[in-house]
Backbone:
C-alpha cells in the first residue's frame, strides 16, 4: 500500500533532488530516511494522538505497543484533522504547479492552459484554499469544526512559508546550477514535509491491515526507503527528461489525492487500493503520452 501511494511522490521528489548537490542528495537518503521512519511514521502519529486525546506521552506510547487496537482507534478519531492538513497541503502543491503563467508544456491541453492563466494572480490559489477552509468549517461535524479549520489554514500557511523560504534562499545563491547551502536546506525541508503529507493517510490506513505497531512501522519504513531509492533512480537515469509529461501526471495524482483526503473528512471512504491505483494510472498514462508525443515529433 505504501509503495502504490509513492510513485507520484518519488517523481516530484526527483525533480527537486535533481537540482541539489551530491552532498544534499546523500542527506536526503541518510538523515532523511531517519526523519521519514522515526519522526513521520512513529513520533508524529503519537504526537497527533496526544493532541487529539489529551493523553500524555508515556500513556500514548504504552497504547501504541500494548494496546494497538485502541491506539489505532484513537488515531482514526484524529483522521479528519490529519486529512484537513494533508489534503490542504497536497492540494496547494497541485494547484501551484498548474496555476503557473510561465508553464509552457501542457499535458492535458485545454485544462492546463486554462489553469496556467490564473498564475497571473499569485493570491488566487490562496483565496481558493481559504474558501475551502471556510467551507469545511461550516459543513463538518461540530466536534472537529475549529480543529479542521486550523489544520487547513496551517497546511496553506506551511506551503506558502516553504515557497517563500525556498525563493529567498535561492536568491542568495549566486554561483552554480545545483542548490547548496540554505537553498538546498529549504528544498530538503520541503521534501520531508511532502513525504509526511503522503504518509499520514497511509499510517491510518495501515491499521486496517494490522494492529501490530512494530509491523506497521517496519512496513511503512520499507516504503519510505523504497520511495527514496526510486527517487535517486529517477535522478540518475534522467527519467523526467525522457518523459516530458511524467511530472504533469505526478502533480495530477497529488492534486487528486489532496482532494480525496479533504473528501474523506465527510466519512466518504474510497478503497485504499483505488486511491493508490489512481496515482499509478496518472503516472502510466503520462509516460505513454510522452512516448507517443516523442514518436510523433520524430516522424515529422
Residues:
Amino acid at each position: 500500500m505504501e509503495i502504490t501511494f509513492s510513485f507520484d511522490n518519488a517523481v516530484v521528489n526527483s525533480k527537486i533532488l535533481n537540482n541539489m548537490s551530491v552532498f544534499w542528495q546523500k542527506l536526503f537518503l541518510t538523515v532523511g530516511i531517519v526523519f521519514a521512519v522515526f519522526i513521520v511514521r512513529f513520533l508524529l502519529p503519537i504526537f497527533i494522538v496526544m493532541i487529539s486525546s489529551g493523553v500524555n506521552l508515556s500513556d500514548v506510547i504504552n497504547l501504541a505497543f500494548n494496546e494497538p487496537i485502541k491506539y489505532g482507534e484513537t488515531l482514526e478519531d484524529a483522521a479528519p484533522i490529519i486529512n484537513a492538513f494533508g489534503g490542504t497541503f497536497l492540494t496547494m502543491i497541485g494547484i501551484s504547479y498548474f496555476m503557473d503563467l510561465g508553464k509552457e508544456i501542457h499535458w492535458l491541453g485545454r485544462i492546463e492552459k486554462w489553469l496556467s492563466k490564473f498564475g497571473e494572480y499569485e493570491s488566487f490559489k490562496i483565496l481558493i484554499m481559504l474558501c475551502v477552509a471556510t467551507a469545511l468549517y461550516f459543513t463538518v461535524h461540530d466536534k472537529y469544526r475549529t480543529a479542521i479549520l486550523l489544520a487547513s489554514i496551517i497546511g496553506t500557511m506551511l506551503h506558502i512559508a516553504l515557497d517563500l523560504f525556498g525563493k529567498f534562499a535561492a536568491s542568495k545563491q549566486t554561483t552554480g546550477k545545483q542548490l547548496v547551502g540554505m537553498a538546498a536546506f529549504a528544498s530538503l525541508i520541503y521534501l520531508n514535509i511532502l513525504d509526511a503529507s503522503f504518509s499520514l493517510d497511509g499510517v491510518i490506513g495501515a491499521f486496517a491491515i494490522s494492529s501490530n505497531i512494530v509491523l506497521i512501522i517496519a512496513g511503512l519504513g520499507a516504503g519510505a526507503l523504497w520511495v527514496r531509492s526510486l527517487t535517486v533512480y529517477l535522478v540518475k537515469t534522467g527519467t523526467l527528461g525522457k518523459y516530458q509529461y511524467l511530472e504533469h501526471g505526478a502533480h495530477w495524482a497529488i492534486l487528486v489525492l489532496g482532494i480525496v483526503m479533504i473528501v474523506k473528512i465527510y466519512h466518504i471512504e474510497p478503497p485504499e487500493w483505488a486511491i493508490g491505483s489512481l496515482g499509478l494510472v496518472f503516472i502510466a498514462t503520462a509516460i505513454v503520452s510522452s512516448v507517443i508525443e516523442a514518436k510523433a515529433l520524430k516522424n515529422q
User: Anything to note?
Assistant: The chain has a mean pLDDT of 83. Residues 99 and 156 are 15 Å apart (CA to CA). Residues 7-86+165-293 form one domain.
